[in-house]
Amino acid sequence: MRFLHDRQPQHDLTYDDVFMVPQHSTVSSRFDVDLSTDDGTGATLPLVVANMTAVAGRRMAETVARRGGITVLPQDIPVEVVREVVAHVKSRHLVFDTAIELAPDATVGDALALIPKRAHRAAVVVEDGRPVGVVAEDDCGGVDLFTQVREVMSRTLVTVPADTDPRTAFDLLDRARVRLAPAVDADGRLLGVLTRKGALRATLYAPAVDADGRLRVAAAIGVNGDVAGKAAALLDAGVDTLVVDTAHGDQDRMLDALKAVRALDPQVPVAAGNIVSAEGTRELVAAGADIVKVGVGPGAMCTTRMMTGVGRPQFSAVLECAAAARAEGARVWADGGVRHPRDVALALAAGASSVMVGSWFAGTHESPGDLQRDADGRAYKVSFGMASARAVAHRTSTESSYDRARKGLYEEGISSSRMFVDPQRPGVEDLIDQVSAGVRSSCTYAGARSLVELHENAVVGVQSAAGFHEGRPLPAGW
Ligand SMILES: NC(=O)C1=CN([C@@H]2O[C@H](COP(=O)(O)OP(=O)(O)OC[C@H]3O[C@@H](n4cnc5c(N)ncnc54)[C@H](OP(=O)(O)O)[C@@H]3O)[C@@H](O)[C@H]2O)C=CC1
Ligand SMILES: Nc1nc2c(ncn2[C@@H]2O[C@H](COP(=O)(O)O)[C@@H](O)[C@H]2O)c(=O)[nH]1
Ligand SMILES: [K+]
């Protein structure tokens, strides 16, 4: 990446401060762009879901890995639960979404409680392991909550045989004019659900899979306690990337933690952070990090900059740290502050191998929280920061009352925020579609067929607030 007219900026910049200038391109289609990362994680899409309790759970991990990204399970989850989640994610089908299964005598109330947990917004009614009907939200209107689902389900079933290729499945669903169909094995047993969009996506994305062809998932540990023991347990559980995470990554505890993890000879990439300087990057790489997590203060749930005055505008932090990491053969993830596809493209242009997203993905069906509605009926999920009083209280629940009270003083995150679900893009895959479309397009504007070429070719200029404002759409006119 170079700056327009080779003018070096006089101050640090964030995503809103910069823009990319189109370059001559020989890439004739956005579908010709390869978005695979080169950081050893096996991701075919440069997105990492942040290790935040309100964002990253099993459902998110499965869905994002199916489209090529990676989810980092938070450090606050007990190891035995991580083990169970990893096994679950690795048992998921690479094409079909996991169905909500209901017995015919389950109630409409059961269906309505479970359907919001799936972006495809339906449940499959199953008898002896075989689908006998589908219940969508619309089928549940105007009946008592204790009505059995067998009375409201649609019985005209289109099923997709297991070995159908996604393009054929798309045509099958299109011709049958159904939005979704249960997928079945040769004995007619339920394997999952395929929507028309899911079939289309299966032709566009490649799942992030391990050497055995199973979906990949990462997990985080902190820098306190028995770091080696916890890391060994996570590796044994089968995590595909280990993330060592703390607010101030450039500290002795982190270097000790990294050395302890390295001593285990993990056969998976190790990410560590957070830092925002070239020196910090070099230290973490020297201590054993393959990937360095960059970002202090840009996160949506993060109050660090207001509390401490510490941090660094994220675009400059990523640019400097990515150069330092690449010089040592390592990579960086740009962590935090991503609110638009453009932010992802700019972080990749600056040299990040992948981009971490937290809060933006909290407001989707796949995040762990329950869907709630405000007084105007707008759907939302609750999000909170990992250094918020809420998260700290949870993390320290086994410590003495005195220690908990002491730690409770150092709050650097928001404890409760409403992340509204975009009615046009309620699922994380809808947001992934948007990011992937935006970044593929950025690459062709930069004449790049891959993310490496995007970083090499990108020409970035600095803009005023008016320049940024000019780029915003005006859906309501002016
Ligand atoms: N990217 C960002 O900007 C930030 C991210 N976070 C996220 O919050 C989560 C919790 O992280 P964290 O607060 O580090 O908690 P941890 O439980 O990981 O503890 C951090 C350790 O570092 C010590 N420490 C020393 N200086 C600091 C400092 N300035 N800030 C925090 N800890 C310090 C703490 O000791 P003692 O408590 O005795 O001081 C403690 O032992 C992580 O997921 C992290 O990524 C949190 C803040 C900023
Ligand atoms: N200072 C704090 N930073 C936090 C907290 N919880 C998470 N984070 C950081 O934010 C990113 C995600 O950023 P987002 O803009 O996509 O939400 C995450 O990976 C952490 O680095 C917190 O409580 N305080
Ligand atoms: K912030």
User: Regarding CATH, which class of the largest domain?
Assistant: Alpha Beta
Structural class: alpha/beta
- What is the count of distinct domains? 2
Question: Kindly state the mean pLDDT as a whole number?
Answer: 96
Q: What proportion of the residues is helical, as a percent range?
A: 25-40%
Principal-axes geometry comes out as globular
- Stretches where pLDDT is under 50 for at least 5 consecutive residues are none
CATH architecture descriptor of the largest domain = Alpha-Beta Barrel
CATH superfamily of the largest domain: Aldolase class I
What's the count of strands?
20
CATH topology of the largest domain: TIM Barrel
Could you characterize the architecture of this molecule?
There is one protein chain. Helices cover 33% and strands 17% of the residues. The chain has helices at residues 58-66, 79-90, 108-114, 166-176, 196-204, 227-237, 252-262, 278-286, 304-308, 314-327, 341-349, 359-362, 389-395, 401-408, 428-445, 451-457, 465-470; strands at residues 2-3, 18-20, 47-49, 70-73, 101-102, 122-127, 130-136, 160-161, 180-184, 190-195, 218-221, 241-245, 270-275, 291-294, 331-335, 354-357, 372-373, 379-383, 417-420, 459-462. The strands form five sheets. Strands 3-4-11-12-13-14-15-16 form an eight-stranded parallel β-barrel, surrounded by six helices. Strands 1-20-2 form a three-stranded mixed β-sheet, with no helix packed on it. Strands 5-6-7 form a three-stranded mixed β-sheet, with helices on one face. The chain is globular, with a radius of gyration of 23 Å. The two termini are 36 Å apart. Bound molecules: NADPH dihydro-nicotinamide-adenine-dinucleotide phosphate (NDP), ligand LQESDW3C and potassium ion (K). The site of NADPH dihydro-nicotinamide-adenine-dinucleotide phosphate has 23 residues, from loops. Its EC number is 1.7.1.7. NADP(+) binds at residues 245-247, 295-297. Belongs to the IMPDH/GMPR family. GuaB1 subfamily. Its cofactor is a monovalent cation.
